[in-house]
Amino acid sequence: MVKAVRIHETGGPEKMVYEDVDVGDPAPGEVKVKHTAIGLNFIDIYTRSGLYPVPTPNAIGREGAGIVLAVGKRVKDFKKGDRVAYAGSAPGAYCEERNVPAEILVKVPKGISDRDAAAMMLKGMTAEYLIRRTYKCKKGDIVLFHAAAGGVGLIFGQWAKALGVKAIGTVSSPEKAALAKKNGYTWVIDYSKEDVAARVKEITKGKGVPVVYDGVGKDTWDTSLNCLSPRGLMVSFGNASGAVPPIAPVVLSAKGSLYLTRPTLASYTATRKDLDDCAKALFKVVRSGKVKIRIDQTYPLQDAAQAHRDLESRKTTGQTVLLP
Length: 324
What we know:
This protein is an alpha/beta fold. About 30% of the residues lie in helices and about 25% in strands.
């Protein structure tokens, strides 16, 4: 038996239970992984709360790193002792050990620690597809990213700077503004004190930005649309403040024939090639030193409920890792 943090019903952090589970042997196509670090992400809160329904009981969490303990039949690319990491899988990462489909695993290269791997996979691969594929940012672009001091935001800001992209970031406090500035953002707007749309128009000399990256959701939706230039792209990739209410398509035309996409990491890593290319791009930029993974908080696995409370109340910055 090994330990896991599971939910038997959806709700608040108090619904998370630290308990014994029996993992069993890996099935064909699976790999048994002993976790050394587990990433904390807002999608875990969506799962726990019921916003993203999953069968229960379930050890929530979609990101981890560790060591291969055993491989099932038909697994050719991994062996016992390999260092591996994954993200975006079916929930189940909040545990000491689990069986994982081999198709979602990647090998962790030298120069990347297990904690960094666990902290970077979901957020880093999200930043990769946002900046390189959803909208292919190029040198000189001015773009807007909400929650710049969050996990994805800090990676995005550094990556943008490395590409010569001028990023505007939004934050909720002077401390987070300073953090965002240190991590590549050319301009930082404290939305608790400033009108974001007005400031963006000032920065862009009235043009607006060609793309807004919005992982906040309900609270920033209208502001995001108002920051876009005509035919700009609204990238709604998260719901940290709650789900965006249904909208009428005519709103997009009224604001300048805007485009809207709601991307997911699963869609951008659906094939083995896409997953490998995404992970390799992330590992390369981290190993180059142009993007540094900032782990600001660690919690013992059994304290995952407190980690959720801190994340929901926006007390955290950068990456958070749970340690089995």
